[in-house]
Amino acid sequence: MATTLIRGATVIDGTGAPATASDVLLAEGKIAVMAERGQLRDADRVVDADGLVLAPGFIDAHSHADNAPFLTGTDAAKLSQGVTTEVVGNCGFAPAPCPPARRAEIERLCGRLFPALSYDWSTVEELYATSDAHGYPTNVVPLAGHHPIRAAVLGMADRRPTAGELARMKAELSAALDAGAAGLSSGLIYPPGMYGDVDELAALAGELPLDAVYASHLRNEGGRLLDAVGEAIEVARRAGCRLQVSHLKAAGRPAWGSVKKALRLMDEAWDEGIRVHHDVYPYEANSTLLSACLPPWFHDGGYAATMERLRDPEALRRAEHDIAADDGTWENWVAGSGWDRVLVAGAGNADVEGRTLAELAERSRRRPFQVLTDLLVASELTAWMSVFAMSPADVTDALRHPRALVGSDGAPPGRGGKPHPRGFGTFTRVLARYVRESGLLSWEEAIAKMTSRTASAFGLACRGVIAAGAAADVVLFDPATVADRATFTDPARISAGIELVVVNGRIAFETGAVTGLRAGHRLRRPQPGKNPK
Question: Looking at the DSSP assignment, which residues form a beta bridge with residue 7?
Answer without folding.
Answer: 48
